[in-house]
UniProtKB/TrEMBL annotation:
Pfam families linked: SAWADEE (PF16719)
PANTHER family, per the entry: SAWADEE PROTEIN
Domain SAWADEE as annotated: residue spans: 10-152
UniProt-recorded Gene Ontology molecular function terms: chromatin binding
Residue intervals passing through the bilayer: none
Protein name: SAWADEE domain-containing protein
Recorded superkingdom: Eukaryota
Composition bias type Low complexity, residue spans: 186-202
Amino acid sequence: MSEKKGGEDSYDLEFKAAEDDAWYSVSVALDTVAQTLTVKYSCSPEVYQVTFSAGGFKTELEVEELATRFRPVSRQVQDTQCRQLEVGTTVCASHGTTQQDLRFYDAVIEAVNHRTHSFAGEEEECLCKFVLFWLHGRGRGTLTSASIANICTLEPLSEIDPRISAFLILAKEEVRSSKSISGLRSFGPGSKGSSSDKSNSSMTIEPSRNTHGRTCVHSWRINNYEQWTSQDEDIGPQDGLALAKHRHFILIHNLEKDIIPSSIKKFIYKKTNILSQAFVFPRQSLDPFARGAIVVDCEKKAQIIYDFLDNPNYIIESSRGR
């Protein structure tokens, strides 16, 4: 008999659907014998589910990408909590024209129009309006206004759900055992190749000074970016680096000299929910800063990251003030 973990009626996770890029409350059941992960959507009145097989992945990157599509359930903001929704906060909000057409996507609060709350009887009603910049989905890159009833706060992801973690182990073991890595190239020292410029813009990071708060820090201001697709790109020595055909690169400059790739990856994931690869290029000892790249596997993800980085209302700053 198969060993199953997770209750069918326990909708305790959110899942980003590939079909419409929206977030749904889901229940998850792991079958360790059949090596499957069944995801059931909470989309009443219909019941919809999808089953993933551990043997259905070609690369470990595909397995990791699936993991990024799960997260804890977002929490509905209460009327008395509107002051917690500050400009720059990433939230999950409903987008749609009718109640039957609402889909939930991630957005950043661009502005808040505070209004006096209404008190009908003993209940407080928030009348504030929030301007949202949509990070993905059908409203990606646009601004809309929303009330507090449309907004949920994201729960911190302290660790991967045990059911998801167990399935990732099974899937990665299948990838390694099948050695299904056709179409990948490994880049190491001395690897050379060609690239084709896919954009007429470039990215520069200009130092500016931010004096808000108790301490004075420097910051980076993102102007634009440069993106390539390539089959063989010389990005310096990276042990174990394997890139699929047609990766999308976003080059970044003016980094702290001792920055590590994992810091870049964590920052991008925290702000965009996209799992990327990041690289810091070798530099000369006299170079005043480091250079690097953010790498994703499709143009859509690169565009989402760019839309976030290119937003003129935000400044990216290092912890030590570069």
